[in-house]
Amino acid sequence: MALRDDYTCVAVEIDDEGIAWVTFNRPEKRNAMNPTLHYEMEEIMMHLETDPAAKVIVLTGAGNAWSAGMDLKEYFRETDNDPDAQYRSFIAHRHWGWDNLAASRKPTIAMVNGYCFGGAFMSLCNCDIVITAEDATYGLSEINWGIIPAGLVSKVFVDHASMRDALFYAMTGRTFDG
Q1: In this structure, are strands 108-112 and 56-61 parallel, antiparallel, or unpaired?
Q2: Could you tell me whether strands 115-117 and 137-139 are parallel, antiparallel, or unpaired per DSSP bridges?
Q3: How far are the Cα atoms of 22, 68, 117, 125, 169 from residue 152, in angstroms, in the given order?
Q4: How many CB atoms lie within 10 A of CB 77?
Q5: Contact, 161 vs 140, CB < 8 A?
Q6: Whose CA is closest to 119, among 143, 81, 154?
Q7: β-strand 175-177 against 137-139: which pairing, if any?
Q8: What residues form DSSP beta bridges with 67?
Q9: What DSSP character marks residue 96?
Q10: Residues 41-46: what's their mean pLDDT?
Q11: Furthest C-alpha separation in the chain
Q12: Residue 152 has pLDDT above 80, yes or no
């Protein structure tokens, strides 16, 4: 299976050195993750895992953000009355952002530029290496909307930070740098 050239939310290129550059490509939304991005990432990660040309997988973001987390409008509001669509998107995100990254036989690197918030933590924390730009800003801002970080975000954050730090950032919504 060859990579398609018509992805709308993700750009992917394998260079001559075998680096697969996977770029979240919704800069107008700070690369917020929507259902389409999850479906595209699921397909791309499955392809790269078996493509001998790809030796390492690098995830980055177009524009001034790695990812602002979930696109609240497209991921939640537009699917409020369609629990099947919400579930399919959740499973696609879990599949590529958790299963594929955590079990990849190839090194995975998150090159974080700009913002990394909320739901983006799951895929970030499942990369083997995280490289952070000096101006990168991280946060679990869900509390600002009266909710706590959901899905696997809380689990992966606790896996990589102390319980007290995880609770502090989840309960205050304060940002931090890398």
Answers
A1: parallel
A2: parallel
A3: 22, 16, 14, 10, 15
A4: 10
A5: no
A6: 154
A7: antiparallel
A8: 116
A9: I
A10: 94
A11: 47
A12: no
Beta-strand pair 65-67/137-139: unpaired
Cβ pair 127, 101 in contact under 8 A: yes
For the stretch 65-121, pLDDT in tens is: 999 998 877 766 666 787 887 777 778 877 788 788 889 999 999 999 999 998 898
The label of the residue with tokens 């007290």 reads: 164
What superfamily does domain 10-139 belong to in CATH? 2-enoyl-CoA Hydratase; Chain A, domain 1 (3.90.226.10)
Whole-number Å distance between alpha carbons of 57 and 60: 10
Q: What are phi and psi of 106, to 5 degrees?
A: -110, 150
Alpha carbons 106 and 128: distance in angstroms, whole number = 9
Pairwise pLDDT comparison (163 vs 90), residue with the higher score: 163
Q: Where are the domains of the chain?
A: 10-139
In angstroms, the CA 12 to CA 3 distance is 8
